[in-house]
Each structure stands twice: as C-alpha cells, then as structure tokens.
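Q: How do we represent a protein-ligand complex in a form that can be generated token by token?
A: Start from the inputs.
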Amino acid sequence: MSDQQKQNAHPPEFYTFWVHCNICYRMYFKKECRFFLLACNHVACEICLEGHLQQTDVYKCNLCLKITKACEIGNAMPANLKELFHPEPFSDGLNAFRVMAFQNKHRQRYFAHQETMASRLEEYQRLCTEAKTNCQKLYQDCENFRHERKHLENRAKLIRQQRRQIDDNSSNKTSSVSSENTSASSLAGTAITSFSNLSQGNPFDL
Ligand SMILES: [Zn+2]
Ligand SMILES: [Zn+2]
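Then emit the structure tokens for the protein with zinc ion bound:
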C-alpha cells in the first residue's frame, strides 16, 4: 500500500462501527471483550452471554431465546460467516444480498438505539433545564425571604427600643409622682407632727 493509500485508508472502526452487542450495545471496535455471532443471526458480547452457555459453543440467545451455536467474531471465523462482516458487500465472490441484509439489519438496530438514546438525552436535558430554573426560583425566593427577615428583625429591634423608651419614661414619671407623694406625705407628717407637738404642749390647756 502506497503512503497516499495509507493516508486515505479509514481506521478499522469505519468498517465495523455497526457491529455491536444486540443486548447491551457495547461496540465491537472498542475491543473491550470478545464478540460472538449466534446462529440466530444475533450478535452478543461475551459479557451478555455469560451464564447462558448450554454446552461447548452453544448458548441460549438472550433476545430470541433460541438455543444456538456461537462463533467468535474475528479473522478465524469460517469464510461463509466472515463475509457477513465484509466492508464491501458487492465484492466478487460474496453473496451481496445476504451480506447487505445482515449488515442493514444490524445498522438499523444500532441507529434505532442511537435515536432512543438521543431522545432520552434530550429528555434529560429538558429535565435538567427545568430543575435549574426551579433551583434559580428557589434561590430567588430564599433571597427574598432573607431580605424580609432582615427587614423584620430591624423593625422588631426598633419596636423594642421604642418600648424600652416608653417603659423608661413611664418609670421616670412614676418615680417623680411617688417622690411628690412622699414630699406631700412628709409635709403632712410634719404638719401632723407639729400639730401633735402642739397637742403635747397642750396649748389649749388653759
Ligand atoms: Zn453485551
Ligand atoms: Zn437470537
């Protein structure tokens, strides 16, 4: 392959981006685990097949529930199965109709999943925006309540001060009245005393 051809060559995932586990939608090109083609034409990763082994290379398909033979996807596959993953289905010697039907079915399944995920993402984004708006509203309400509380606290403080002032004034008045009363009593006392002194001296005693 020339350098120019190498530059134009697509990465391997370009040809196999549609190959995915039909159960968990893990992608084949990420090479995270082994993938199998089942005789029911479903593709599954080894993680999804775990626990479904019936006998050597025979699994119960999690999608159609058929007991089927499985073949690991890779270069060691038999030619009649390997051609299903060929990047150019119309190449000579291939059953183009069979290959295209297989690949289209898997592409459609993959795109449908992408669409579901995209609409789910859109829904999450809508919920996030809604939650953000609610949070902003709650924050604004809190701020308003905080201002209102501050205002009421200042008002309460002012009322307490005024009340203290009124109390002080009235206690001053009370003490001045009582001191006036005391003076009056004392004057009366003096008068009485004087009178009694007079009595003691018996000024009328002729
Ligand atoms: Zn899987
Ligand atoms: Zn199946």
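Helices lie at 3-8, 12-16, 46-49, 79-82, 96-201. The mean pLDDT is 85.
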